[in-house]
Amino acid sequence: MTSAPPVEFxxxxxxxxxxxxxxxxxxxxxxxxxxxxxxxxxxVRGQFIDHMPRIxxxxxxxLRARGRDxxxxxxxxxxAGAADHGEHRWLHGYNSGExxxxxxxxxxxxxxxxxxxxxxxxxxxxxxxxxVRTMLAQLFVDCMVESASSHAVLERAEAEGRxxxxxxxxxxxxxxxxxxxxxxxxAAHDLRGNVGAVKLAATALGQAVATPDLPTFVSLVRxxxxxxxxxxxxxxxxxxxxxxxxxxxxTFDARSVISELCDSLQPLAAKRRLFLKFDAPPALxxxxxxxxxxxxxxxxxxxALKYTEKGGVLVSCAEVGSxxxxxxxxxxxxxxxxxxxxxxxxxxxxxxxxxxxAHAIAREAAEREPGALALSIAxxxxxxxxxxxxxxxxxxxxxxxxxxxxxxxxDAGMELETQRGRGTTFRIVFPxxxxx
Length: 436
Hints:
alpha+beta, Globin-like, Heat Shock Protein 90, 13 helices, 7 strands
């Protein structure tokens, strides 16, 4: 450590703090021009800056402290801010590589500002500037590691939820196969000759019509249909994770796409004696992949209908926010029992916690930007539902993971609010335009 007086470090700290807004502007331009970072396009300025003021404030205290106890406390605050930053970026669809590249761009912008200070201040001690440069490098190494670790924890929780879902599906498959085998064995003693598999199936079903076995056969068929849906979801999730799905950006009317989907699901809502309402402006022209947007909406609406016993589901979409980046949001609210348990619990918990953090940042941004993103675009629904019906299965983490992966592919942010017995709200914020 240099023996230079603290005032020399305080001068640099004051300069960096004075120039902080210019540093953030430089950082945003660098990230926006990086072709390997696309997830930032949907973030307003306050969301993009995120926890960085907190981290740089801690670095400012460390520069002024120079060896005192304040420096250790500042370092702890820097690492906590970096961990929260990693969670925020995961929530908004960043992969770990994009998050690390953002850190690198900010480091270069701060180094450039430090060099400008050294050139402008001819009497600045070279040893002090060199030590501050080293401190900056150490700061970013530590913060990048902490941010990456936070990001990895969230991804691991999501993977654990999918693993439990796969184990449940496999066990159900084994159970169905055992039951089906036993039924065929009981029916086989009435069969004679080399008739083949077609005659075997026809004879068994014919016997079932005249016997009490029919409900069992019907139950097996329905169970197989459910498992087939789950397996198809797993195949789609695998394709998404393998990078085999690409987004096909076109201009489309989001209102028309979501409205047609809601109309097609009205019979299902009526069968469950639920309402399914849709609210949107007369037209909502946006750029994006209409097929994948429809898939996201379909997964969320079907899940909401499945786990809502009384009341119903309200779907809405509208343009949101203001400023440089145009965005629109899809909101799916239900009066169900909430998503506080089941196979998707780790993923649900992580998204909920990250959503609360993102809302805090959005509120801070709203104080500086009157047109910043509002929390909700639909009225809150009151739940009339009691506890989950005993026949219902836990929420399926595979479907939620598909939505999360599709959001990443479309550079969309995903938010979740859920409370046991009072319903769930999913909110997806899409860019209205994509850079070519």
